[in-house]
């Protein structure tokens, strides 16, 4: 007997037939004698619609009300799955974030989990009741509903697995594991049997949305055994199904580059002709931080005439807030103009082997040059190189890099 957490993403619960399929999978685990908690996402497309409604009413909407709206998608799926399980003869009960409770901080829209009270869930699981939890949501100290950021149901699942001391956390999605890159845009992508926490963390943080970044961070810190697998294939989760996220030393053959990711979620902003003196960067990025606009890549030009251009990227969703922040400091730093470009994509190559191999960045730049793709901004970390390019070249760039690093399936 094992205690397991199963998480099903949006496409896996997209309609009633798929919810029935999920219920059948849960039932199978129960019949194997396992204690099961299930975390569900909103039905595919629902969260996008809810987000869109909030933005249409007000681009700078109140984050607490945004959470009140977008958390509803998961409530529907949790209830539907509980009904479906009962229909299939399985004892089940749905739980919303506040009912567990899953407590978070007050950072609405991207809240972090602070604690989960698992005792009642464990008591129910021990009498063979399946706990069906609405992912993505929690409750703040002031009793308002919070959400954990897009893709946050992954984090709900891993946090729950840690709180319940589960033996496994199975993340069911619409692909059968983690690939060397998004298999939807590179048909030659290869499935990885194992990936290290660190590489998965880096890939997630640069856009491989198969797992939310925070979920990988939690899994790494809490030693949760996470497996990514498909809800559309029939195989029972065994040792060789899907992709297991593991410690680096469990991986025998380390590739220099293990994966490539892309993100179209960023917007580029250039603040033109600011004075080149101490305190300017602090003023710009201080104002952005105050507005909660997350900055990612940054470049500053050298100054020829005492002024300089500052270029950086923020998440597309943060663009209206960034604009507000920069407008407010215009008098302070006297920039000439603001340029915005939302037609950009960030392409990143990730691999722990980069620590010991030279030339990784150069391979990237050469492969992009060969396709005549211009690089606008570059950033690097110990195990990652990222470039910003025009969005129209995203697929071309990812495919070219996949080939250049020898990752193509044969
Ligand atoms: P869910 O709704 O189940 O949470 P997501 O859409 O959030 O699913 O994540 C799964 C998707 O992640 C896949 O359909 C795939 O297109 C995308 N993806 C991006 N990078 C990768 C990768 N390296 N390996 C597998 N899938 C990836
Ligand atoms: N429904 C939420 C989203 O679309 C959370 C999730 O699916 O993980 O972002
Ligand atoms: Mg997801």
Q: Can you walk through the features of this model?
A:
- The protein is α/β, with parallel strands linked by helices and 410 residues long.
- The protein is built from 13 helices and 20 strands.
- It has an eight-stranded mixed β-sheet, sandwiched between helices. Strands 13-18-20-19 form a four-stranded antiparallel β-sheet, sandwiched between helices. Strands 15-16-14-17 form a four-stranded antiparallel β-sheet.
- Helix 6 packs parallel to helix 8 (213-222), helix 7 (197-205) runs antiparallel to helix 8 (213-222) and helix 12 (360-370) packs across helix 13.
- It is globular and about 75 Å long.
- The protein binds adenosine-5'-diphosphate (ADP), aspartic acid (ASP) and magnesium ion.
- Aspartic acid binds at residues 9-10, 41-42, 47, 73, 135-136, 150-154.
- Residues 9, 151, 154, 209 line the site of magnesium ion (MG).
- Strand count: 20
Which strand order spans the largest sheet, edge to edge or round the barrel? 3-6-2-1-9-11-12-10
Biggest sheet layout: 8 strands, mixed
Distance between the termini: 40 Å
In CATH, the topology of the largest domain is named Carbamate kinase
Number of domains: 2
Instruction: Tell the overall outline.
Output: globular
Radius of gyration: 22 Å
Number of helices: 13
Give the low-confidence spans: none
From the structure provided, what is the oligomeric state, counting identical versus distinct chains? single chain
For CATH, the homologous superfamily of the largest domain is named as Acetylglutamate kinase-like
Examine the secondary-structure arrangement and name the CATH architecture of the largest domain: 3-Layer(aba) Sandwich
CATH secondary-structure class of the largest domain: Alpha Beta
The proportion of residues in beta strands is 25-35%
Class from helix and strand fractions = alpha/beta
